[in-house]
Design a protein that fits this description.
The complex is a heterodimer of chains A (about 110) and B (about 110).
Chain A: E1 5-7, E2 10-13, E3 19-24, E4 31-37, E5 44-50, E6 53-57, E7 64-68, E8 74-78, E9 87-94, E10 104-105, E11 109-113
Parallel strand pairs in A: 2-11
Antiparallel strand pairs in A: 1-3, 3-8, 4-5, 4-9, 5-6, 7-8, 9-10, 9-11
Chain B: E1 5-7, E2 10-14, E3 19-24, E4 31-37, E5 43-50, E6 55-58, E7 61-66, E8 71-76, E9 85-92, E10 102-103, E11 107-112
Parallel strand pairs in B: 2-11
Antiparallel strand pairs in B: 1-3, 3-8, 4-5, 4-9, 6-7, 7-8, 9-10, 9-11
Chain lengths: ~110, ~110
């Protein structure tokens, strides 16, 4: 059974640029959630995807968008990057949308915006 | 916004000692979960306790939940150097929460050999 993977591991971008982060969910999981974790903080929920549709969103502006593909892998896109977007971005997959399903996290992508 | 507040922010103990960390939250919840994070990497789910449960065990972990005080504690018994990590609580506020778990700031645990 393959775990959750994320790519790239590290990324450096300039303010105003756009970035795409990728996540492969664990086999058999149809739900992917994305989180932003700033240094020294807890994760903040960005959004969740279930069967290729957005299924809940946190307090993030529309320049944060996502996709989920038929194989349940997912992308997080951030447009017009700002310095405050520098953070660890985590995705988590689960076999369902309810919070009682255990979420399996990937190792994260560390994004630095300069 | 952060709902959970872990206490203490940092904890340093010797191997073999017990470690207790606490989490307080503000709204009613469906369940509360504890996660571990090593060195700013991905999180690992430790245990979930539902709002109608008061105590739960998993190996060396013991979690309690007091919904009247809106607080939870995580006890790690007979700690090991490998337990060194940050520990987070996350709450599910229930219906209408837009699918999101709300996370605390975490407790940083250092277990010294």
């Amino acid at each position: 059974e393959t775990g959750v993977t994320q790519s790239p591991t590290h990324l450096i971008k300039t303010r105003g640029q756009q970035v795409t982060l990728r996540c492969s969910s664990q086999s058999g999981h149809n739900t992917v959630s994305w989180y932003q974790q700033a240094l020294g903080q807890g994760p903040q929920f960005i959004f969740q995807y279930y069967r290729e549709e957005e299924n809940g969103r946190g307090n993030f502006p529309p320049r944060f968008s996502g996709l989920q593909f038929p194989n349940y892998s997912s992308e997080l896109n951030v447009n017009a990057l700002e310095l405050d977007d520098s953070a660890l971005y985590l995705c988590a997959s689960s076999p369902g949308t309810g919070s009682t399903y255990e979420q399996y996290f990937g190792p994260g992508t560390r994004l630095t915006v300069t | 916004s952060q709902q959970g507040e872990e206490d203490p922010q940092a904890l340093s103990i010797q191997e073999g000692e017990n470690a207790t960390m606490n989490c307080s939250y503000k709204t009613s919840i469906n369940n509360l979960q504890w996660y571990r994070q090593n060195s700013g990497r991905g999180l690992v789910h430790l245990i979930l306790i539902r709002s109608n449960e008061r105590e739960k065990h998993s190996g060396r972990l013991r979690v309690t939940l007091d919904t009247s005080k809106k607080s939870s504690s995580l006890l790690i018994t007979a700690s090991r150097a490998a337990d060194t990590a940050s520990y987070f609580c996350a709450t599910d506020p229930g219906a209408g929460n837009n699918r999101k778990l709300i996370w605390g700031l975490g407790t940083s645990l250092a277990v010294n050999p």
